Amino acid sequence: METLESILADFKARKITEKAAAKKIAELGTIDLGHTKIDASRRARTGAGEVIYGAGKTAAQVLEIAKAIASRGGAVFATRLKKDALALLEKNFEGGRANEIARTFALGGEKKRGCKKFVAIVSAGTSDMPVCEEARETLEFFGERAECFYDCGVAGLHRLLEKIGRISEASVVIAVAGMEGALASVVAGLVKAPVIAVPTSVGYGASFGGIAALLAMMNSCANGVSVVNIDNGFGAAYCAHAICRAK
Amino acid sequence: METLESILADFKARKITEKAAAKKIAELGTIDLGHTKIDASRRARTGAGEVIYGAGKTAAQVLEIAKAIASRGGAVFATRLKKDALALLEKNFEGGRANEIARTFALGGEKKRGCKKFVAIVSAGTSDMPVCEEARETLEFFGERAECFYDCGVAGLHRLLEKIGRISEASVVIAVAGMEGALASVVAGLVKAPVIAVPTSVGYGASFGGIAALLAMMNSCANGVSVVNIDNGFGAAYCAHAICRAK
Amino acid sequence: METLESILADFKARKITEKAAAKKIAELGTIDLGHTKIDASRRARTGAGEVIYGAGKTAAQVLEIAKAIASRGGAVFATRLKKDALALLEKNFEGGRANEIARTFALGGEKKRGCKKFVAIVSAGTSDMPVCEEARETLEFFGERAECFYDCGVAGLHRLLEKIGRISEASVVIAVAGMEGALASVVAGLVKAPVIAVPTSVGYGASFGGIAALLAMMNSCANGVSVVNIDNGFGAAYCAHAICRAK
Amino acid sequence: METLESILADFKARKITEKAAAKKIAELGTIDLGHTKIDASRRARTGAGEVIYGAGKTAAQVLEIAKAIASRGGAVFATRLKKDALALLEKNFEGGRANEIARTFALGGEKKRGCKKFVAIVSAGTSDMPVCEEARETLEFFGERAECFYDCGVAGLHRLLEKIGRISEASVVIAVAGMEGALASVVAGLVKAPVIAVPTSVGYGASFGGIAALLAMMNSCANGVSVVNIDNGFGAAYCAHAICRAK
Amino acid sequence: METLESILADFKARKITEKAAAKKIAELGTIDLGHTKIDASRRARTGAGEVIYGAGKTAAQVLEIAKAIASRGGAVFATRLKKDALALLEKNFEGGRANEIARTFALGGEKKRGCKKFVAIVSAGTSDMPVCEEARETLEFFGERAECFYDCGVAGLHRLLEKIGRISEASVVIAVAGMEGALASVVAGLVKAPVIAVPTSVGYGASFGGIAALLAMMNSCANGVSVVNIDNGFGAAYCAHAICRAK
Amino acid sequence: METLESILADFKARKITEKAAAKKIAELGTIDLGHTKIDASRRARTGAGEVIYGAGKTAAQVLEIAKAIASRGGAVFATRLKKDALALLEKNFEGGRANEIARTFALGGEKKRGCKKFVAIVSAGTSDMPVCEEARETLEFFGERAECFYDCGVAGLHRLLEKIGRISEASVVIAVAGMEGALASVVAGLVKAPVIAVPTSVGYGASFGGIAALLAMMNSCANGVSVVNIDNGFGAAYCAHAICRAK
Amino acid sequence: METLESILADFKARKITEKAAAKKIAELGTIDLGHTKIDASRRARTGAGEVIYGAGKTAAQVLEIAKAIASRGGAVFATRLKKDALALLEKNFEGGRANEIARTFALGGEKKRGCKKFVAIVSAGTSDMPVCEEARETLEFFGERAECFYDCGVAGLHRLLEKIGRISEASVVIAVAGMEGALASVVAGLVKAPVIAVPTSVGYGASFGGIAALLAMMNSCANGVSVVNIDNGFGAAYCAHAICRAK
Amino acid sequence: METLESILADFKARKITEKAAAKKIAELGTIDLGHTKIDASRRARTGAGEVIYGAGKTAAQVLEIAKAIASRGGAVFATRLKKDALALLEKNFEGGRANEIARTFALGGEKKRGCKKFVAIVSAGTSDMPVCEEARETLEFFGERAECFYDCGVAGLHRLLEKIGRISEASVVIAVAGMEGALASVVAGLVKAPVIAVPTSVGYGASFGGIAALLAMMNSCANGVSVVNIDNGFGAAYCAHAICRAK
User: What is the pTM for the complete model shown?
Assistant: First the structure.
């Protein structure tokens, strides 16, 4: 396969014209499906292949993109899939892993782990599970080991404290909570690892679909907390993976 | 002194006319200073005398109101005092108690306690102290015993846990915190007493002058938390007093 | 049943090892159902057993949790139940009390009252009734006596004034109102008891699903008002119970 | 003085050309001071002359505008005056009325009243006085009679009730309140007159400089309330005058 | 029928005891339907009978309230009716007027007009029509004459200018607009009558369901504008009626 | 057809009375359909005929307006059409162009182009396509040439850079993006043409239906960016057309 | 001076190595002052040189940047200058133009005009003048002719209408308004040119420092309006210049 | 020094009583200064000693805390120092490093680096420098190597692209930007390292003191971005350090 380096070398060697070089470079990174341009060079550039974001795409579009990636030998990972898209992918790709709670589909993925240890996913309540599962599936696709610690909300502090020993052995901690989002601060005060906080839309009234938790996490009195978007389990997992890979 | 009951009795006994009765009732509850109508019947009605809210009043106005109350034998309590008002009150009333951090002035007050035990004031950080002090002064004016537990923010959970034994003996707990306000949830998960949460304007950026803490406290995952306005140490203490008195 | 104290005593007596003690303590407080960790020690810790929050849980999950609690001899109380969950609980537990307006289910509950008197639930309008009913059911589950005063909005002040005599005899007042939420201020100016204000999502346009009422209640010009989340009848009742219990 | 009618008549009578007519019409309504175009035809058009809004103008600019109006025989009314502007106007115009609390200056004004009765200005607290005074001065400039009822906040309901008899005789009621703004709802439930509500920036924390009161007033459960901008005493008074004039 | 005056007279004449008088007074103003307390004295107090707000009430509840009012000889007016409630009222009350666009039902109403002239309802666009119709029906129920001027948005200023002659003859103007709500300012600059502005939820994106229009109207650069809640055609009409009646 | 000029000339020539002239002028610009006043003079006044905004109108209303315009020889363009309205227009007008993604219908349109070159529509992602298509259809209706550059989000910068050569030849650039809306800033830093930014509602959580993108675009660090409402492809295209026409 | 083209040509001709070419390209576009990197290639790239944004820079920094630009023969334009920076620039550069109201400084600038005609700057009130002046100075620096139409707010519509003839001859219209921002909609309904709306922070209370105007302008019912940031006179003028240049 | 382990061992060995053990544990982690409880065990617990947050503390308090830490052999790091506090620390501690732009003071610090490589701090503009400097000082205190890349805003993309080669070698990237915050998305699309985004309060108008940038960063279309609070350079650096340490 051509790379930026090979094209530039060809150009310097006068094998191709300046114009041809420009055109080759332009086409290099993109598979054009009309409605979508797959960023084929993303893995080379940022270390991870493009992920299919299922929201706002038809099942047919998702399948088309997945096939385009798979046919070029890429691993496929899709998130926020509606039921029909999930079913369609399952039907078309043998050996893929569909997760209905997480609403994800994975085919292939990274082999070697970034982290020697594991990524801890700690959640406040039962209702945060879909976000946790999205994070867990993402981590596994990118080759990281994940351990989940569900329902550790601070209203019953002992539920967290009895797990904190294991949690503090993780390379990275993902803290998932809705309502007042206090979990992130409490966890970050107890571990050395970086904490990625995910506010969830769990709650009602003045929780504003996750804003209360988001603000709480942005204002954490504990150090070492950074925050991703509401319900963005994928984003948190990706960050955790980037951290593991950063070594 | 005339009371509503005595006026109605006089009216029934035909000692006074209907019109006179109406006029007496109207005048009963108010001392009119022109700029301010002192609610002289508030103590009879709600169990606590009127408190002078110093914000937006000149030192002279505050003094005039204080004198009007004191001259009728009432106890004086003023909050949110600017420096000059505080000084003026100190100069005019011997034996009063001025608190510069709390910005309060007290002269006299309740004798008998509502609570057998005490009200715990727990705060997250050093900067929350003015709000705590306002609460403490208010409680003392209303005859309640207060104990303060400063700087117990959840980033160093052991600071709270080492005090929680004593805190859980309180009749009421006032939890004071800025930033993400997680203290209220953690405390409420550990005690049986009602928790009154006071968000403070301590913080910066996306804390929005206390809104992040206020929202967190409104959305507490722990039961038994109710919330007063940002920096409203007086309000929280008044509620605690009302609870103590409620028995 | 083992308690924290009995475990520590055993440890001191060298009946169990340090490691075994740690494990016992960790397991003590929690019944683990996979998706949910029931906080079994909450009653010991905070004085009230765990309540099932039905929102975001399937009927089957709710039933499973209810059975786990009931099988250990605990009283069951569930809120925010969808119709199918309510029906399933009714079918599985004889002698339980289902309330379709409140969307609650109760089985068993506290026997002895905290308050000698009663908790007054005062509401502004007919549409606030589901929130009031949730509060009333919660109070009864926790053993408190509740009296309801519906449709006392300040637009027709006499409707409130004709009831205020009885309301002012309550130990605690819960004021429930949407729209501009003025009820809380007016009530708090007329009674000695602590007032817990519940903003409701009743209203339209610039009421923002209860925010206008919430802000009004946070800024009450009357003393003794604290606020819980929008539509949080359960939370207000829990606070009232904690106050009654506080004596 | 030329009027629109006289110009059109001249044009029809062919005394002036089409172009000249257009120019005359354009110049008719405006006195151009460079920085400001005085809307000289406003009184003819909307029934009230232009008022000088002092905020964001220098004392010199305010004086220049005032002179331009006065020199054409108009009555002068200026609001939101800074101290220097107020002093400058006082010095330059004999017989004018300066009000330091209201921050207004008036010279001349309407002679005949719109309302047979009076406009009631009811306020919640002492700190609302500047807004009330601005309203009162405005009403007097426009020839209306105003009566003020200060410090009638709903926390001490009897303070309002003892005045409500007189208030209910007014043609229009202006209700001025900060904090939770409940006064407007309570008043509107007790009188037949239209109620114009003015939220004030009095308060702190979650009152957001008057927004809490504004929202409460917009969502009033009582009928007959309309709202003007925060602290807009002038605007409320102008509306009241328009109502009086409407007969 | 008993009135407050007759009861007090009986009491003074010792025909009834103090306790009986208190009870009578309390019952005087209210018809209690369990879920709803009809404010039967509202007409005496504020000049207009209670209106049934249909939102959040079942068709059966609405009918019950309507019958309770009608059976006491009152006129019935209901707003925000769902289709089934509208149909039920039509079926039960002969001679009533149902308006499907306005979602109102009227039976009887005021006979004599408040205004000699009329109330102008001016709207910006076709989509504002339901709000206008609600206003028009309300005005007619209260005996006022209404004239509608639809689709006069400022994007085509001549559409407004060609009607402004007639509009400026109105006693009161109701300006109804969504989007940027500029109509209120332009109209208020052209007429002498008081202008009541109704922001509507017409618009999309950054119009926030009517907030953009509401803010624009609150900040009108023209004098004489007061504002009611978003889509509150009833409220605006009620205010207009109160103004007409104020003479 | 009569025009403003012809009417004025007739009046000057005394062919028509003053009153008749006024009436003619008033009727000139408007076709009144009862629910809608078509702004028939808009093309003369602003250079573009009135466009039918389909949201909030029934299919029948849309058709009626379209027929009224078409019968007077005007070109028809409708946006935000629901499916039934789109179908009805297609059925009634032969030769029209319906676009289901854009939800537009066009019949006729401008012949001569404003821009010599073209308008570039650059979008961040696949989900922004409906907004882009609305813009493209609008441009074509107004006679402008449009070129689309889809899926050029800044997460894969090369996708934009490989197209930037062509984009920078455009007369105007429309940048369409949801989420963080960074595309507008990056494009504006690379081209000389004016950039009209369209925030879209694509995103979730703290994107608030397009507000995050809107704010980002308002605060662009690059010069030459102006912004239209969220999802307002039509508005951006209209602005681009006005720019092209401005020469 | 070296250009991107000359460097690439040298590289192709093997005059310089690949590494040297990369370095040269990197240095090409930037003058590095340590604290600031002047974007020296911006004029080549976007058609306009870099402008010094004075806010948040010391007078000394501003001077240093200005000198760096001037010494390379560039024209200097600085905005948002504090008084000391303005004075320092005046003292150091002869022949420059300082504008204290606009808070800008210009030295040199474009010679040839983009627009044949002119850019109209229309403002609502006197207080909007600094924003207008910033726009005017910017236009002149970029070689465009500007005409100002001050104080044309819609409360006195004739002030706008008497100028609209001239305004409608402009190539581009900049509409500047605070408060409710209605001016933009009214102007856009009357002219063919593109309208760039600038909300200003003029106003108080619920105007929120310009947000009310910004929202109104985003939601304009008139076509052809795009919006720049609050008080961003420079940005609007830059957009207008880009439009003029676009031909 | 006593540790938790040594105390528990003593207890098990019956050297100390249960009560004495509890007391020792409680005192272990805290140095109590009255106003402040220094979290002396934080380094053991979270890997980094307590940092003095200077905002809201007097110079004297800051000095007292610094002395308490230093006297126990700890390294001192203080942020958000006012001028007087900075001067006082400089005067009292020889060999410390004061940074006036960053407003930090450091004495001692970590010796061994967490990251083999370095942390890149990339900023959009000159005005973001104080935030960058706070981050850089923090990193150095914690032993990490930092490299700064200032003034790389996306309006001049080449400024970023010419540095991206070096930036992409970093272990972690901190992206600092105000206004629209697009820098974070563009950088994250070009590097493999995790990106910590810091919104700054640089901007005006609708940037809302950093909210626009914060929202943009939360909604980044690029993967691997997590966000800290506005202007929180310290927090971002701490997270970067935690990541480096995580290996």
Answer: 0.88
